[in-house]
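User: Need the bound-state model for iron/sulfur cluster:
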Amino acid sequence: MLGIDEIAEQLRSIGFCCRECGNCCRRVGEDSNLVLVGAAELREIMTATGMSREEVVEPYPEFISGGNGGEYTLAWCLRRTADACIFLKDGRCSIYEHRPWICRTYPFMLLDDELMVSECPGLGAPISCAVRDAAADLHRRQAAEAEEEAEIRSIFQETKIPPGKRVVIDSEGMKVLDG
Ligand code: SF4
Ligand code: SF4
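Assistant: Bound-state model below.
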């Protein structure tokens, strides 16, 4: 895992200042605004908004066959309108304090020991945020995602996909979808 100082140095050298264009919340290409949320993040948004799980998220759209007529997917994504995340209101994030890691750290993410950078018009500008805090957030996000993945893996190994049903397996268990 990269250290905070190494990440901060890379962020400084890439450069980033958010232009608040909202492109990362909009559908600018096929599934460009799929925002994955972990079970704990989903719970936080539900508590903050009073919305149900079905109102906040949709299943990650790629389902895998369980071999018995059942299908599963291993993630939730924030619900979207035809062209944007449902929480984008008047060009601003309406759940800003509770937005998931993927939004907090965009356009950056850590993949093993590599800092990955997504498309964003704010790249290349002198860095505008507290760079060590941004690096620490990336570290925390990587740890949270690793924990989530390990829990999902362990639940998956103990789970039987019900025949003929579609399910989502997250780090809190299996949810059978209606219909
Ligand atoms: S992170 Fe990038 S894409 Fe998202 S609002 Fe800021 S400048 Fe736009
Ligand atoms: S949760 Fe907020 S920051 Fe994240 S995609 Fe939706 S509107 Fe954008």
